[in-house]
# Entry
Amino acid sequence: GAVVSQHPSRVICKSGTSVKIECRSLDFQATTMFWYRQFPKQSLMLMATSNEGSKATYEQGVEKDKFLINHASLTLSTLTVTSAHPEDSSFYICSARDQRRGPNYGYTFGSGTRLTVV
Amino acid sequence: AQTVTQSQPEMSVQEAETVTLSCTYDTSESDYYLFWYKQPPSRQMILVIRQEAYKQQNATENRFSVNFQKAAKSFSLKISDSQLGDAAMYFCAYRSADDMRFGAGTRLTVKP
# Structure
């Protein structure tokens, strides 16, 4: 089945530094990947849609310059949280759709990254 | 914009009993897909069941089934013979084109 690998699973960084999170589709190509943010006991909020070879599409209210997304290949999308602040601490999840399968298949999710900014 | 509403923040069920989780959505689209995802404490999102809007027949996956009422824009999940491993957050999700939106989630507790 489709597998999405997300790294790191946990990261602690200091305020003002940048953190990169990777999302890889291991056994399929994904022209589109999605980045979500999840606060404790809340739902997943779509942050942006990552498109291979082009600019990401950000949801309203998401700062493009703070959350840099790069989708340089058909199997890798990265989310970089720049100049991180404690309020950026959250759980970040990526997902991708295996386009070999029908549109009703749904998305495969990475295991998530817990970011803590101190 | 499409919205997904789960009106039950928490539900509880006795082991081996049946429980129904509610979900409603709002859309002007005619072609879309609906999903239920499970998120256990590991935080991994696991697909439970899916439903195509153009299909009238309700989807079933073993102990999980849905009651899809398109006119009412309702998509409830029924879990039969509940097991301890079913305890998790359950998210209803709507997808049209290429993005997916989630409801707020329902935390299901299974009592032994």
About this structure: Residues 3 and 63 of chain B are 27 Å apart (CA to CA). The mean pLDDT of chain B is 94. The interface with chain A takes residues 33, 35, 37, 42-45, 47, 50, 52, 91, 93, 95, 98-105, 107 of chain B (CB under 8 Å).
